[in-house]
Amino acid sequence: MSTASLFAKTIDHYLAPIRSYLADESVSEVMVNGPEEIYVERDGELVKTPAVFDDTETYHAAINNILQFTGKSLADDEALVDARLPDGSRVHVAKSPCARHGTVMSIRKFAKSMLDLDWLMELGTLTPEAREFLEVAVTAERNILVAGGTSSGKTSLLNALSALIPRDQRLVVIEDSAELQLQQDHVISLESKAADRFGRGAVGIRELFRSSLRLRPDRIIIGEVRGGEALEMIQAMTSGHGGSMGTLHANAPLDALNRLETMALMSEVELPLSALRSQVSSAIDLIVQMSRQIGGRRLVTQITEVLPLGDHGYYQTRDLFAQQQVSDDAGGKALWLSWTGEPSSMAGRLRSEEQARVTRLTEGVFGLDGEG
Ligand SMILES: Nc1ncnc2c1ncn2[C@@H]1O[C@H](COP(=O)(O)OP(=O)(O)OP(=O)(O)O)[C@@H](O)[C@H]1O
Ligand SMILES: [Mg+2]
Asked: Which residue has its alpha carbon closest to ligand 1 atom 6?
């Protein structure tokens, strides 16, 4: 069993007394003032619960188990500690002398898709250099597709990346069922709608897409591309909506481009294949490939740049980040998502504020050695 799923299992065991509140959608926070005094915030109201931990030992064991994942423990000197539960919920623990009547713990629950980049880093989903690269790419308004298999963490990564979009930009979010939680002020969320029992009133992703273009967004975020709307998305991306993003089911970057093409062909619009391919390749700048590992870990396995079509009319890509073997601390081999040595074609096109974000971690990727 992987460390992450083992962690989830032991936590579930130790937190048994409050498990039902953690699972309860209407509860946003669980506050444990002591083993026998547990409050929850339900629909914004503070409520005392009948829940209790068996005794102080059990309660402390539960906290120690949560802290273990962050490498800390109640025995440490630190009086105030922050940690997270496997689902992304934030935990804050205060112990004496700061907490004068014994250790208190508060769990601020987070919806699953609220995993942010910090938490994805803690889960080992991506490396610091890959993160920095993506941060610059989002700021620089690259069009990004997150590709991966079922439940590989695509939506979570898209959500985390969306947090990097400047606050003042106007975003339109298009989804089949609302999952993404954008933090910007200026967000218009459109959700598709099934037909009523008379077969009327259905609104598909594709119609939403057309409507979104009239709403003058700076960027369009599409939860998942899976049909004819691919064509609208491609055209939006090539016509002044730089920085748009979405997810797509595919097991490799080239596979993602081919699927996008196939889906665009599903629209009734007639377009020569060569023209469509060149639109696909100019629309998509980057593909972030995700994969779900045995044991439940989710990893970014590649960050790939889409190049202009080759002479023979085929897609061409260039891996900027890929998993490479490195020696780990224990002297064994581990895979680490690292720079392949290929420069990004973004190099030299960055604005000054984007260049300013580039540190030593990625200056090679952006070709900024010595000047950035
Ligand atoms: N980086 C990650 N590490 C560990 N767990 C993750 C990670 N990202 C997402 N998860 C968990 O994996 C599950 C699926 O995540 P998510 O919905 O983001 O995947 P998806 O690829 O969009 O799935 P789908 O194929 O259903 O669209 C969720 O329970 C989520 O909490
Ligand atoms: Mg998804």
From this structure: 153
